[in-house]
Amino acid sequence: MAKVDKNEVLFERAQKTIPGGVNSPVRAFRQVGGTPRFITKAKGPYFWDAENKRYIDLIMSWGPMIVGHANPEVVEAVQRAAETSFSYGAPTEGEIELAERICAIMPSVEQVRMVSSGTEATMSALRLARGYTGRDLIIKFEGCYHGHADSLLVKAGSGLLTFADSTQNAPSSGGVPQDLVKHTLVLPYNDVAAIEEVFKKQGDQIAAVIIEPIAGNMNLIKPSTEFLSVIRNLTSKHGSVLIYDEVMTGFRVALGGAQSLQGITPDLTCLGKVMGGGMPMAAFGGKKEIMSKLAPLGSVYQAGTLSGNPVAVAAGLKTLEIISRAGFYECLTGQTEKLMTGLKQAADKANIPFVVDSVGGMFGFYFTSQIPTSYEAVTQSDIEAFKKFFHLMLDEGVYLAPSAYEAGFTSITHDNEVVDAIIAAAESSFKKL
Known about the structure:
The chain is of the alpha/beta class. It has two domains: 6-70 and 326-432, Aspartate Aminotransferase, domain 1 (Alpha-Beta Complex), CATH 3.90.1150.10; 73-323, 3-Layer(aba) Sandwich (Aspartate Aminotransferase, domain 2), CATH 3.40.640. It has helices at 6-17, 72-82, 93-105, 118-133, 160-163, 178-181, 192-202, 225-238, 257-262, 288-291, 310-323, 328-349, 375-379, 383-395, 416-432; strands at 39-43, 46-49, 54-57, 111-115, 137-141, 184-187, 206-211, 241-246, 268-271, 282-286, 355-359, 362-366, 398-399, 408-409. The chain is globular and about 65 Å long. The two termini are 31 Å apart.
């Protein structure tokens, strides 16, 4: 009698009460096919599924587990906080400490407001930008994902690249009114001429430009220096707010985020993932002049019962303490680069068109001959080869993002032994492609 896979049993059960059987679309394995793995525990660079099979984790909860799963110091901090209650709905000293830490790490952030998710952060930052400027239009870039707020679901990245038809200049999701979308202009990532043309025609109408300073939701795409410089200059010239969506890159690519690597000072920054140490926690912050427009000081309303949750704050504070230690990012970056070099060499040995890229503890790989610089270029890579590679690696015990449109993530616990094991799995997998 054939053995029943517990993951399949759980997935079938989940689909009866949860739409699609998952609580976030990319988890459904729709692009790659097959059955999602239901995770039971995780430690360091590994997690285990319902069959108790161990995998090397290369998504790390999509970024936040930068110090490894179940880091003992973070666990202890969370336990201490939980003993005093899970939530107060009232201010705490921990919130102040976390805000002070963020402002010290990121000079562009003079004041910060905490929320519970990246979507809340970007949605609130855009409302604030509109309230501050008195304008309606916003600019985003094709393939960038800034959460699931209505006005941002236009040619969006992440799971939407798998599920939606993004060929039309229309909402990428059902339920989003066209009237809302008309206030969102979508331009190609890394296209300097396009952003210059729009500002030339409509600069006095643009409230904000929101950008992933290193895109991670159409795989990893780096911006050109000129692209970022032009955006910063144009937004300053026309009085528009530049919003850096560092929900993914903040504290992940460097301690000071992508902005510290690029020498750009945004007006507002959105943070998440790492700042909560894996707990539901995010924030948006920036110039005091802009942040003072928020209620209770100003007319732009934003609120949340669980904002600044004490348990999440404790996890975030301890995580930021750990990543601030000497040598942390040098080690993280070095291990990620070693992994990318190994994957590239393994693909070359098998004569498979394959390129890699990375920044800090964030990486991308692509089944094509040249590193992509735009959404369109990513879609022209060999997606079928990725699907086969994903499942071959899964069989080898390596869990990659189940979509060719997602970046990958390492942690400080991905040591030489772990990296060597991933490369060995890749060598075996490339031979079978």
